[in-house]
Amino acid sequence: MGSDRREIQRKFYDATADEYRENFQQVNPYFTFVAERFLAAVAPRPGERVLELGASGGRFTVPLLAAGCHVTAVDISPRSIAYLERLVTNHPLRGNLTLLEDDAATLEKVPARDFDAVVGAHILHHLDDVEGALRAAWARLRPGGRAVFVEPNPWNPQWYVQVTIHPGRSWRVERGLLRMWPRGVRRAFLRAGFAGCRVSTFGCFPPFVLNAVPASRAWEAALERVAPLARTFTLNLFSAGKA
User: Fold this and answer.
1) Contact 105, 131 (CB under 8 A)
2) What is the crossing angle of helices 29-42 and 216-224, to 10°?
3) Which residues have CB under 8 Å from 165's CB, separation 6+?
4) What is the domain count for the chain?
5) Which of 30, 72, 128, 226 could form a cystine bridge with 210, CB 3.0-4.6 A?
6) d(CA 97, CA 48)
């Protein structure tokens, strides 16, 4: 990530770190829906070493800990790391968590090369060099390890509306979602050395629908079977492996 771009991201997430509890930690049907899909793809097992990029407010850090994993959580924002430290202070598995302020694009402070999984949610689109970041992730995986990332799907028009009108969003920060076209990101995984990359999409409805209408979960499942429609769902899930 270029120095100017890195500072834009760092300053934005430092400025919003105090809002994590309000914006990200609430338990609601939409968050549960996304977390279930993401964690199902990761398939964490007790004792595994997991490297999480862009840990942010700990939305997935805590569930990974609860699954019994040893988690190294990386974030470029020192205030995000401080927030996570406060969040997990009394967690019974706090000893299984390492917090690092580091750039996900280079992972200079992560020398270990024996992680079972490298994961991230809404992090790749914040990086200028996606392939370079994936190479750094690949290098820190053990043979047979896996990578799972969930990212906004630029085929879905909801993102353009949200980034444009939402007071907490900014194209200055989120413009990288225009680089998240599934085919291009899949190629980046392969060029970075991964043996393969599977792309799936999920999330037809915006959060307020899933939160207000319980039946929408069943509708989601039915609509996912309609391939041309599913291509435009809100989230791309990338799953790759290291030979």
Assistant:
1) no
2) 40
3) none
4) 1
5) 30
6) 12
**Of residues 203, 200, 198, 201, the one with CA closest to residue 186:** 198
- The residue with tokens 């291509």 is 231
d(CA 180, CA 162): 16
The β-bridge partners of 73 are: 52, 99
SS3 154: coil
Number of residues written out for the chain: 243
Q: Which two tokens stand for residue 65?
A: 């800990």
Q: What does the pLDDT profile of the chain (243 residues) look like in tens digits? A: 456 767 767 776 666 656 655 555 556 888 889 999 999 999 999 999 999 999 988 889 999 999 999 999 999 988 889 989 998 999 999 999 999 999 999 999 998 889 999 999 999 999 999 999 999 999 999 999 999 999 999 999 999 999 999 887 889 889 999 999 999 999 999 999 999 999 999 999 988 899 999 899 999 999 999 989 999 999 999 999 999
Q: Which two tokens stand for residue 61?
A: 């850090």
DSSP string, 45-98: -TT-EEEEES-TT-TTHHHHHHTT-EEEEEES-HHHHHHHHHHTTT-TTGGGEE
CATH value at residue 51: 3.40.50.150
User: Range of 198's domain?
Assistant: 3-241
Question: Which one, of 59, 23, 37, lies nearest residue 220 by Cα?
Answer: 37
